[in-house]
Amino acid sequence: QVQLVESGGGLVQPGGSLRLSCAASGFTFSSSTMSWARQAPGKGLEWVSNIYSDGRTNYADSMKGRFTISRDNAKNTLYLQMNSLKPEDTAVYYCAMGTSVTTADYWGQGTQVTVSL
To answer: I need a surface site. Which of 49, 62, 78, 89 has the fewest CB within 10 A?
Structure first.
């Protein structure tokens, strides 16, 4: 069955960096579009970024220039490098198989990212 397992979250100070990972199994990762989304406390699910099988990427405006999505098809792993983190980036981050929040077929369990002094 499809499994998506996120890791790499934690507590980081403003301006710091984190790299999230998402280990995928149970489907053909290399041919799948993958996404990251997040949910801040008390808010709805927000799309962050996606990456197509050919490596094309897209980002939400507030993440452009700070976040970088990438994939390692040999390891069936999706990544999100997050730099210059802000307190408003605090959220649970999810990886998903699919293009967007509304079209994703499968989701991971999420990993908590907290940006605070």
So the answer is: 62
- In this prediction, residue 49 has a pLDDT band, given cuts at 50, 70 and 90, of very high
Q: Six-digit token pair at 72?
A: 């390692």
Cβ neighbours, 10 Å, residue 20: 24
Residue 101: pLDDT band by 50, 70, 90 thresholds?
confident
What does the alpha-carbon distance between residue 62 and residue 8 come to, in Å, rounded to a whole number?
21
Residue appearing with tokens 């897209």? 58
Q: How far apart are CA 90 and CA 45, in angstroms?
A: 13
Quick one: how far is CA 81 from the chain centroid? Answer: 9
What DSSP assignment string belongs to the chain? --EEEEE--EEE-TT--EEEEEEEESS-GGGS-EEEEEE-TTS-EEEEEEE-TTS-EEE-GGGTTTEEEEEETTTTEEEEEE-S--GGG-EEEEEEESSSTTT-SEE---EEEEE--
The pLDDT of residue 48 is 97
CA-to-CA distance for 19 and 10, rounded, in angstroms?
A: 10
